Sequence to fold (401 residues):
Amino acid sequence: MDMPLAQRMRPKNLLDFVGQEHLVGKDKPIRRMIENKKVSSMIFWGPPGVGKTTLGHIIANSILANFVFFSAVTSGVEDVRKVIVQAKKDKDKDEKQTVLFVDEIHRFNKAQQDGFLPFVEDGTIILIGATTENPGFRINAPLISRSQVYKLSELEDEDIEKLAKKAIKFYPKHKWAKEAILHIVKQANGDGRSAINAVELAAEIAKNVTLEVAEEAVQQKAIYYDKKGDFHYDTISAFIKSMRGSDPDAALHYLARMLKSGEDPLFIARRMVIFASEDIGNAQPTALVVATSAMQAVHMIGMPEAQLILAQAATYLAKAKKSIASTVGISKALSDIDEERLEPIPLHLRNAANKVMKSFDYGKGHVRYPWMIEKEKGEKVNQEYLPKTLMGKKYYTEDWK
Fold:
């Protein structure tokens, strides 16, 4: 079977590497590391198809080291031991270093990650871990402290176009319509490997690659979205902040991202219920009704129709008047519970359920309907409801809007 195009295209040096200028550009950290031939262990953090594995190869080539690719998905502790043993032999025999590239390193548990530490420290291996997940959450602190973390970004369309044009050179007998290339670039969504794979598939479909052929090859834009990681939290954060900023268009954009990526629609609906109370509150009380109804409807209807319900609720909440009076009020009240002395509940507010309680003045002097007295007699009823130490305290003020 022929080697995949992405593998055949893999550059061996920085001259052919595309993207990540903040790391490999002039005087940038990885370029300096390669030029000085002083390489230490590192963690590459970034979405798929942005050059993590390729950079690992280039770094290993720059110091003439053995490059060992290791997948945390398909390999285990025993495989690690074998690599370490061989790395020691190579180092003792000809002083050749081993660059151990661990793809999806976040999939290793704590004990497995700790297993690398002594061999990183004594220089048996140079570890390059690649992860799509935030290493601050998924990589052990001791390993992080012994490594440099580099964040790789999604490729720009200009970078993707460079890769696509390099890829079509492998098919000199094919004809490539300009709009076909542009479609592949746009649909790659910052993923270089996705663009190269689309070129390869399009070339297999037809010799004359038109826009229609490119559309067939791409089928659907690949959206990277980890339901338990940064993209999950970043997207819902952007969604909430767009509604808070009264921007229904941005809210719909981030809602569409989540829906396209397979996010749980009930998770989105629950966050909107919270938002309706937290950020809209009594400025427009119907918002909570709309959000709650939307959540119930999403539960009953399910996808794909539930996206209509979510869109209606999201745009309503985005356009609604905003008030954080209730949110600020409960926050202050909770703070006082922690910090202030908790005085007994005033006697006149206590529940006088029997004669004994009444004998101790429970409920004595309480005015049940002060508004009625004020209406009938035109007299202001001054009845205190807060404990003694908090008399006159204001938690809820309409100024918070």
Summary: The chain is about 55% helix and 5% strand. The chain has three domains: 20-151, 157-218, 230-319. The mean pLDDT is 85. The longest helix spans residues 77-94.
